[in-house]
Sequence to fold (267 residues):
Amino acid sequence: MSTLNILDPLWITKGSHGIDPEYSKYILLSANQKYRNKLKKGDISSFYEILFHSLNLNNLAVEGSVFNFNMTPIWDDPKLNDIRNHIRRLYQLPDNLVEIFKNANFLFIGLMLDYLDEMLIITDKTKSYYVNLGIHRQKEIFIVLNVKGSMDYDIWKLKSDKRYRLGHKTTHIKTITLDMLKGNALREAIKADGDPRLANIEADVNVIFTVSDTELVNNNLASAISSSLIFSKWITNGVKYESNILSELYELLSQDRILPFTMKSIV
Fold:
């Protein structure tokens, strides 16, 4: 999956003079175009970057800092200091700063809704199975994709690590084709394959098995499933994993048009 980032976490500090709403608007519109171009091509892998920026915006408003893509807080930018000084004087934000926050929130929420809409279209054609209700808290999660009636099993790995972009990475491991269907056929095939990348796979711990009714683009399906797992880990870490959490997020954003979390709440 793509690892290129579209928008700098410090986008709000760009521009040569103070807090510049016109330059910020230009940056946001440019990013919006790039995100939407990816979506038009069927690439939903930028969803979490958009969510990241929305959470970062909330974090800046509440905590006064932003996070980089390695989930490290940034405090020392001079323009962040200016923004913090304004935010301390609640209800006295200057019009230009209010405009930047308002425009950015509107853009990020709109993008997330459109990406979620695409992901829900994909996952609506699938059924997921998992034993461990706390699977979203595992450092490594194996996503096994299968089309109903097919003997091919496409295996992806979601790995959580702050060294990765946005703290996680989803990669394709391999496709295993079975000779016959029987109770533990896939487990035995994985064991016989001996691939060290599958050494930590445990059916009752870190495997989510997803069956689709029709052929789908597997990298997008894996990305959508990863999104539900990561969002669950970020936001609902203390409760069980719900595979329909993205549809609940869609309803929340549709009704309230605001994301009620900050980056600080998830790191």
About this structure: Residues 11-123+254-265 form one domain. Helices lie at 21-40, 47-62, 78-88, 95-123, 185-193, 218-235, 245-256. The chain has two domains: 11-123+254-265, 126-241.
